[in-house]
Structures are given as structure tokens and as C-alpha cells.
Write a structure and sequence with these properties.
single chain, 372 residues, alpha+beta, Phosphorylase Kinase, domain 1, Aminoglycoside 3'-phosphotransferase, Chain: A, domain 2, five-stranded antiparallel beta sheet, two-stranded antiparallel sheet, 11 helices, 13% strand
Length: 372
């Protein structure tokens, strides 16, 4: 999620996948994976596309999962390659079943094309899987309260569409989320104990321990506040778990496609709502040090109002939202900073400072956020 949050952009996007993120621009991912001509020829031979007119690199999203845009006699498509090292066949089949359910219920997804013999919705070639999606014209998030509202409505419709699906009951292990998670606390501890010598923290070693302690206490306080509202008693369901602007395409005042279902898991719907509210109301900038500490309250209200207009939260869920947003914000920074000492092109220390400032503002205004 972190790279999604830190990658919020307003550029136009006309292909059914998320826009590039901070992770895709980081030094350790400087080389983008690609296709070779022979590989493409073999993969596309499995599909009935008619005569090919053009194949163009789609240089957005994850660098390890390359994509190409295809124009053929039968239309426009996007081909995506995945590594079996990172996702298995069972997981992909499950994701595709969910997308099929959503499509049958009229939810806006980018349709998958079956193979020529209609036996599968992906092709396996050696240690890679390939998916072919129909092109969906649209644009990215324009950072307006109205599009925030539309995105909130779409999340509620997603939850309703998937709520009673039978297929998720046979899903692979999809437990865990960012709430009250051991991995978050372990990651914060690792930042303080193992990264003080990292270049990202050079000259700031003395403040690092205090900064990490603040984040740990803020995370614990937020988790405790959520649990006090009865989180463990709320019904679990399948959630998207990555509801952010780069995964949504808009056109003519509506959502025309929601993409990237890889992070789906079983949890409480408010986990999705809180993360989505954070993602659509965050105020960012060029350098984390200069990011505003507050949220865009109009977009905040728009997203929650949109969700409530379709599937209202109850009072306890609504009270938990600001605290879950705080947990989500902290979770966003942990894994990347632990792994690399940085967040994309940004110093890990500067990112953690920015998170502290935003958390301080959110804690001061928690009553406002509960009532908006």
C-alpha cells in the first residue's frame, strides 16, 4: 500500500492498470523487465486476436511484471506477465474467479480474455504466467471531492457484489491485514535496531529511536481504540485490500474499471474503507519533508459519504475509521523502509518524519475526523 499512497498522481491513464508508484522508481528497481519477440509470439498464439496491428510497451506499474498494449483486428488489449515465484496458479485462478463474479454482477472490471481453446484465462510459459485484458479507456484520479465520492461508492458496490459469492469460501489462505498486526510491530522494531547505520539515517541516528518509539506507541494506541469498538466481533468478508487511486479508472463521472485484485483477503469491510479514505484524502508533494500535515477534508468526506450512500457504516465502524487510517499509514512505511532504508527515491528517515507529522495532526483532529 505504501507505494500506492506515495505514488498518488493525477496523470491521465488509458490502460486498465495502476499508474507508476514510488516503488517502481526506486533504485533497486531501476531496470524494467520486458518481453522478447519470441516470447510474445508464443504467448499471443494462444489467443484469437486476428491480425496484429501494433504492440507497445506499457511502462507503468510494477517493473517486475511487464505489460504491453496490443492493437489487433479484434480490438485493444493489455498483456501482463507474472512470475510464478511471486504468485502461483491457484492464486491467479482464484483472482480470476472473483473477477468473473464481479463482471457477472455488473461491477466494472477489465475483462479477461480466455485462451483460443477457452480452457483457461491465463497462459503459462516456463516460470511465468500471462494474462490478457480488454483495454478500458479512462483517466486516473483527478483529486476532486466528486471523484473521491465516486470511488467510495464503487468500494461499497464491490463489497456488496462479493459478499455472498460462493467461490471465496474455497479461496487460498487470505488471512491478515494491517490492523493490530505483529508484522508491523516487528518491522518497526527492525527499523530501530538494524537500520541506524543505513545511509538513509546518516546524521539522524540519535533521533531515530525516538521517532520509532513514537510510531510504535501511535500504532498501539490506534489498534487499542479500534479493538475497543468491537473489531473482532464484526463479520469478515472478502475485501480488495488495495483500494487506491492508481487502481481505479474514471470516465464521464463514473468508475469504469477497478483493477489489481492480488491483495484480496478476508477481513472486515472497514479495513478497506479506512485505507481507501486515507488513499483518497492524503495530501502529498515532491519531498516528504514538505508534505502538508493535514488531510483534504473535502475528499475525506466525499469518500466516506459515497460509501455510506450505498452501504452505511454503523456507528462503531465509523468511530474506528480514523484509528484504522493511522494504522494503515504506519503500515505503509514499514516493509519498504525495513527492506531498503528508503521509500523509493526518498530517505527512510524523511518518510518516517512525514508520517509522524501526519499522525500528530490526525490525533489532534480525531474528533473532527469522526464527525465529518
Amino acid at each position: 500500500m505504501l507505494t500506492r499512497l506515495f505514488g498518488v498522481r493525477s496523470e491521465r491513464n488509458t490502460m486498465p492498470f495502476s499508474q507508476s508508484s514510488a516503488r517502481s522508481r526506486s533504485p533497486q528497481h531501476a531496470t524494467r523487465a520486458g518481453f522478447d519477440a519470441g516470447e510474445l509470439a508464443v504467448v499471443l498464439s494462444h489467443y484469437d486476436l486476428g491480425t496484429l496491428e501494433s504492440v507497445t510497451e506499457f511502462a507503468r506499474g510494477s517493473r517486475r511484471n511487464p505489460k504491453v498494449g496490443i492493437v489487433s483486428q479484434r480490438g485493444k488489449f493489455l498483456l501482463k506477465r507474472r512470475s510464478l515465484e511471486h504468485i502461483g496458479q491457484d492464486r491467479v485462478r482464484f483472482i480470476h474467479r472473483i473477477q468473473a463474479i464481479l463482471q457477472r454482477k455488473g461491477f466494472p472490471v477489465a475483462p479477461l480474455l480466455p485462451t483460443r481453446d477457452r480452457s483457461s484465462t491465463f497462459v503459462q510459459l516456463r516460470d511465468h504466467l500471462y494474462e490478457l485484458f480488454q483495454f478500458i479507456p479512462g483517466h486516473g484520479f483527478a483529486r476532486t471531492p466528486e471523484e473521491s465520492r465516486i470511488a467510495g461508492e464503487a468500494l461499497a458496490r464491490f463489497h456488496l457484489a462479493i459478499k455472498d459469492a460462493a467461490e471465496p469460501l474455497a479461496a487460498p489462505d487470505l488471512g491478515g491485514d494491517y490492523h493490530d498486526a505483529r508484522m508491523v510491530r516487528t518491522g518497526l522494531s527492525a527499523i530501530g535496531s538494524t537500520l541506524s547505520a543505513h545511509d538513509s539515517f546518516s546524521g539522524d541516528e540519535a533521533e531515530l529511536a525516538t521517532l520509532v518509539q513514537f510510531l510504535m506507541e501511535a500504532y498501539d494506541d490506534a489498534a487499542e481504540a479500534v479493538n475497543a469498538e468491537g473489531f473482532s466481533q464484526w463479520p469478515q468478508r472478502l475485501i480488495h485490500s488495495d483500494w487506491h487511486p492508481g487502481n481505479i479508472l474514471f470516465r464521464d463521472g463514473r468508475v469504469v474499471a477497478v483493477v489489481d485484485y492480488d491483495a484480496m483477503r478476508f477481513s472486515r469491510r472497514v479495513v478497506d474503507v479506512a485505507n481507501g479514505t486515507l488513499q483518497f484524502s492524503i495530501l502529498a508533494g515532491v519531498d516528504p519533508v514538505d508534505w502538508p500535515e493535514d488531510l483534504d477534508l473535502e475528499r475525506f468526506k466525499g469518500f466516506l459519504g459515497g460509501y455510506d450512500s450505498v452501504s452505511p457504516l454503523d456507528s462503531k465502524e465509523r468511530t474506528a475509521v480514523p484509528h484504522l487510517m493511522a494504522e494503515a499509514l504506519i503500515t505503509e512505511c514499514v516493509a519498504p523502509v525495513v527492506a531498503t532504508g528508503s521509500m523509493g527515491r526518498w530517505s527512510g528517515f524523511r518518510v518516517l518524519q512525514m508520517v509522524r507529522r501526519k499522525l500528530t495532526w490526525m490525533r489532534r483532529h480525531v474528533d473532527l475526523l469522526r464527525s465529518e
